[in-house]
Amino acid sequence: MSESPNKKRKIMEVPNDAIRHGNYQQYYEFRSQDSRPEHLERCLPKCLKKLKATNEIYMLDIGCNDGKLTHSISEVMLSVLKEQKKTSFAVGVDIDAELVNKASAAYKSEYLEFIQADLSAVAMKGIDDPIQKYMASKGIQRFDFISCFSVLMYIHLNHGDDGLKKVLDYVCSRARILILELQSWKKYRDHVRRMRRAGGEDYELYNGLEWRGSNGALEQSIGDYVISKGFSVICTTEEKNEFNRNLVIYASNEIK
Fold first, then answer.
1. pLDDT tens, the chain, 256 aa long
2. How far is CA 9 from the centre of its chain?
3. How many Å apart are CA 119 and CA 128, to the nearest integer?
4. Which of 148, 176, 161 is nearest to 53 (CA)?
């Protein structure tokens, strides 16, 4: 089905900065169908068995946008854990302060909060780290779950292979279980073209990326790096979601 003229106009009106970093103000307006919470719910029993969960589970969602998906996943976690007389706490992080404010206004509760942070700057430059402050306030060394849903492409395009590796280093050092939803190389190419059509500056590091390639080659490079940091794949969604992407779930080998 072709896009309506109104929808096309809205897409064209997206500011260049939002295209560059993926912090779209109307993201869920164009992605209203979202089966990711359902897919994740099916993998949760295996994840929780691996964790040998304590009474409290902590989750970090990186690139939370306006909080809709983070909230949905938090609700799934709370529901599943309630049956085990356990509870969960989730925090969503986004580079865009306006989106964080929207998320806080719409969904913030005692079990869910949102904070603004530029993960690339934190991981690459060691600047003030609100995520680490959150962890300290909760008295945790690692999050039980860290999720990155369709967000690493923007870090990769803006900061290259080395920048993405530093972000993955940061995430892997703070996660017991890591949930990744990766964009394909075709999506990278489409996005670079979209940036050019919008009149934005090119991604300077794009042509020099070594992690690239169709038919799963890009995703394999990223997955291999995560495994090299001491993780193993414990669950992959069998069917792709409406974004034509799988969720791949890794567990730290340090979990006993």
1. 333 434 444 444 566 777 877 766 666 565 556 788 888 888 898 898 888 767 899 999 999 999 999 999 999 999 999 888 899 999 999 999 999 999 999 998 999 999 999 999 999 887 789 999 999 999 999 999 999 999 999 999 999 999 999 999 999 999 999 999 999 999 999 999 988 988 878 999 999 999 999 999 999 999 999 999 999 999 987 666 556 678 999 999 998 6
2. 27
3. 10
4. 176
Contact 174, 126 (CB under 8 A): no
With tokens 């291999």, the residue in question is 224
Q: Which two tokens stand for residue 77?
A: 């976690």
Nearest to 66 by CA among 121, 109, 114, 21: 114
